[in-house]
Amino acid sequence: MTYATADLCDRHEPGVQVAEPLFRDFGGSAAFAGPVATVRALEDNTLVREALETPGEGRVLVVDGGGSRRCALLGDRLASVALDNEWAGVIIYGCVRDTSALKSMALGIKALEACPRRSRKLGHGERDVTVAFAGVRFEPGAHLYADGDGIIVSASAIEA
């Protein structure tokens, strides 16, 4: 699918939500789209791993890390897991690490910042729940479209 979020926004507003421009691109694919799956986990990436170990089927994992900049919730190993399981991308409201490796991967990755510290592994958090940040409510099954201009979310798939 070829699209530009600016064009989608023009054609489908007010039916789309537009995320505040908080995110940087870290993956090798600047443009990605797919149905939303979610994780809410503060400084613990156990559920992120669990989600990415399931078949992605072109989905986008949206992770509400509470905006924490104290540790990374995704690095090159988990990004490889995401690629192997055919996820389209990952949005992290938090940090990533291993940024040089992430750039070479054909995966869409947007996050707030980079941080070299790894997260805890305690299994805290929730999966497949509505999360909200950057002025957007991300509901499982909604459709997310991302590119260099930003992130938009629609309740259902929209025409490019």
- Count the helices. How many? 4
Classify the fold: give the CATH topology. Answer: Glucose Oxidase, domain 1
Tell me the count of domains: 1
Say how many strands there are: 12
Rg result = 14 Å
Nearest-integer average pLDDT: 96
Order of helices and strands: HEEEHEEHEHEEEEEE
Using the 3D structure, state the CATH architecture: 3-Layer(bba) Sandwich
Which class in CATH terms? Answer: Alpha Beta
The CATH superfamily name is: Ribonuclease E inhibitor RraA/RraA-like
Largest beta-sheet details: 10 strands, mixed
Strand content: 25-35%
Structural class computed from helices and strand pairing: alpha/beta
Described by the principal axes of the CA atoms, the overall outline is globular
User: What's the end-to-end separation, in Å?
Assistant: 7 Å
Helix proportion of residues, in percent? Answer: 10-25%
Please mark out the parts with pLDDT under 50 across 5 or more consecutive residues, or reply none: none
